[in-house]
Amino acid sequence: MVKNLIFAVLQFVLFFLVFAVFSFLPPFHLMRIVSTTPQGTHIFIFDGLLLSAALFVLILLIEAFRKRIRTAGVWTVAAFALAVVAGLAIKLGFMSL
Q1: CA distance readout (Å), 78 to 10, 27, 37
Q2: Which of 15, 46, 59, 83 is deepest in the core (most CB within 10 A)?
């Protein structure tokens, strides 16, 4: 139980860092205009979120191949969900031009 919790915290940090780094340094430049006002344009950069989701799927596949999806899968899903919620709460990926 403690081991799963430690790995969940480490996965949360990994997902959050990937989301943060690739939101500020987008390698694919996948952007969507959220709103346009006279003061400027607000966009969302999808690179960090998509790469974090790809890492999430990769970790779930590794857990499935190792037959640990029942015990570790729930913790991985929780870590990913918390990282995405935390990242969106502090507006990672959002930019004003």
Answers
A1: 12, 27, 36
A2: 15
The token pair that represents 80 in the structure block: 């990913």
Tokens read off for 3:
């081991």
Residue 41 is part of which domain span?
2-96
- The continuous run of DSSP H or E covering 7 comes out as helix 2-24
> Which sign, positive or negative, has the C-alpha torsion 45, 47, 52, 54?
positive
Q: Which pLDDT does position 57 carry in this prediction?
A: 96
Place 83 in a pLDDT band, splitting at 50, 70 and 90: very high
Res 68: pLDDT: 85
Residue 47 token pair: 């690179």
CA distance 38 to 6: 47
